[in-house]
Design brief:
The protein is of the alpha/beta class and 491 residues long. Helix content is 34%, strand content 22%. The chain contains 17 helices and 23 strands. The chain has helices at residues 2-6, 20-39, 47-61, 67-78, 92-106, 131-141, 148-152, 183-191, 216-223, 236-239, 242-251, 275-288, 309-320, 405-408, 430-437, 450-458, 469-476; strands spanning 11-13, 16-18, 81-86, 124-128, 146-147, 154-156, 159-160, 172-175, 198-203, 228-231, 265-269, 296-300, 329-332, 335-338, 342-345, 359-366, 377-382, 385-390, 397-399, 402-404, 413-420, 440-448, 486-488. The chain has a 7-stranded parallel beta sheet with strand order 5-4-8-9-3-10-23, with helices on both faces. It has a 5-stranded parallel beta sheet with strand order 11-22-21-12-20. A hairpin with a 2-residue loop joins β13 (329-332) and β14 (335-338). This is ATP-dependent RecD-like DNA helicase.
């Protein structure tokens, strides 16, 4: 150990041993949180000023914020940093929009993009870890939203256009889906913010943690160094959704009506050997009702086996996009890609602005003799962005009719089909099922074994990752180890 430490391959701190890059990322986050907290004092808006601005926004948007939403907006406006958390249907998106509108009203800021240019950049930054999550932010607020990578000018590896020496410009940043952000990206983002920027961190603490190292959202909440607003009220438009009702049952570890037939969800009993056929039958039924393959997303937690992602993708491709003489195909390894296939990007590609988890459609396949590169080529459209893949790049793509629940985080789909069987047992935990269920906007179709789901929902032994971030934040900010500062709906 001494030799590894001398060689710079590990860092020791007390009884803890770190990889250097993780140690310095954790340390960097602590420094940035302290800097942002101390660099921007709480705003001194009077209650009368706040209520006047809120009233103008409500009149302009023809809506009225609930008391819990007002409380969240008020806290965000007054605090240098704040965490906003809550489950589906609790109004996080409404609050995000409200924070932006009220902040702009109080500071006499235009929200029109045309009023800004390179010398006077847009003052409010909306960002998310994935392209699909950023697109949802943009659609729900009507304001510009980008990925964190794009905001920071990431060009690959550890290369970013922005850091502590060249911070991003703006007055307020709101980061959505923070549970997906690992410790490296969180450190890069935080150190790239100017001292006086206000920050609102949004996420659902009950979802799966980031694929990469760390549990940044959970640690920030647990640290108690910044205010946490928890939204718990389910609003009227969400109360009619049995999917949201089921999600909150899962969150509480109880399933009251899992197998009941509802307008927006169904449960289909089947054995593991029948899962693939059951999924295809459900998908076929959705297609007959007019839904496109892009609207229907199958989610599964494992890749191998007859109920795994690979097998399900093969069968769903046969169903949705079978071979024909009029349709070009291209074999690459174990995959056959065809025009109109739904595909998933597997790695970050900053040059083309597509990132791990983005879903697109193959719109063209060119033979080598038809291209100037003299190599077979696949063209994929990602929400209108066309990306060219030469044959040697095709390891970046896979079929996306079925994808992992981790890959689906930050996305929503009109129809989610969720197979759950005992064969998934190693992966079955409450936060996995909760994350899968909350991906569905209109219909949720669960098939498989009821006992497997009930077992998963009872398994709340979340794998706590080794992290000292919360403790270091408390130590740096001179707070006792007393748990998070939480402002719930009824506080």
């Amino acid at each position: 150990m001494d030799q590894l430490e001398d060689d710079g391959k590990i860092v020791r701190e007390g009884n803890d041993v770190y990889l250097p890059e993780l140690y310095y990322a954790e340390k960097g986050i602590v420094t940035s949180i302290q800097r942002l907290t101390e660099g921007s004092e709480e705003e001194e808006y009077s209650e009368a000023e706040f209520m006047e601005a809120l009233g103008k926004v409500e009149d302009r948007l023809s809506m009225q914020y609930a008391d819990s939403q007002q409380k969240a907006i008020r806290q965000a406006i007054r605090s240098p940093l704040m965490v906003l958390t809550g489950g589906p249907g609790t109004g996080k998106t409404t609050v995000i929009h409200g924070i932006v509108e009220v902040y702009a009203e109080l500071n006499s800021l235009s929200l029109e993009v045309k009023d800004y240019d390179s010398e006077h950049p847009y003052p409010i930054l909306l960002v998310a870890p994935t392209g699909r999550a950023a697109k949802r932010m943009k659609e729900s607020t009507g304001l510009p939203a980008v990925t964190i990578h794009r905001l920071l000018g990431w060009t690959g590896g550890a290369n970013y256009a922005h850091d502590q020496d060249d911070p991003v410009e703006g007055k307020l940043i709101i980061v959505d889906e923070m549970s997906m952000v690992d410790i490296w990206l969180a450190n890069q983002l935080l150190k790239s913010l100017p001292d006086d920027m206000k920050m609102v961190i949004v996420g659902d603490e009950d979802q799966l943690p980031s694929v990469g190292p760390g549990q940044v959202l959970a640690d920030l909440i647990q640290s108690g160094v910044i205010p946490v607003v928890r939204l718990t009220d389910i609003f009227r438009q969400a109360k009619g959704s049995s999917i949201i009702e089921l999600a909150h049952q899962i969150k509480e570890g109880q399933l009251k009506d899992l197998t009941a037939k509802r307008d927006d969800r169904r449960f289909f009993h089947c054995h593991q050997a029948q899962v693939t056929e059951a999924v295809c039958q459900i998908a076929k039924g959705a297609e007959k009702k007019g839904y496109q393959p892009k609207d229907i997303q199958v989610l599964a937690p494992i890749y191998r086996g007859n109920a795994g992602i690979e097998k399900l993708n093969e069968r769903l491709q046969e169903l949705f996009n079978p071979p024909s003489d009029q349709k070009r195909g291209l074999t690459f390894g174990d995959h056959i890609f065809r025009v109109h296939d739904k595909v998933l990007q597997l790695m970050n590609n900053p040059d083309d602005q597509v990132f791990n988890g983005d879903i697109g459609e193959i719109i063209s396949i060119l033979r080598a003799k038809e291209t100037t590169d003299n190599e077979d080529t696949v063209i994929v459209s990602f929400d209108g962005i066309e990306v060219k893949y030469l044959r040697h790049d095709l390891n970046q793509l896979t079929l996306a009719y079925c994808c992992s629940i981790h890959k689906a985080q930050g996305s929503e789909f009109p129809i989610v089909i969720l197979p759950v069987v005992k064969g998934y047992h190693r992966m079955l935990k409450r936060n996995l099922i909760y994350t899968a269920v909350t991906r569905s906007k209109e219909y949720l179709m669960i098939c498989g074994n009821e006992e497997a789901i009930r077992t998963a929902v009872q398994r709340n032994d979340v794998d706590r990752r080794h992290s000292n971030l919360a403790a270091k934040l408390r130590e740096r900010m001179s707070l006792p180890d007393a748990g998070p500062l939480s402002l719930s709906d009824d506080s």
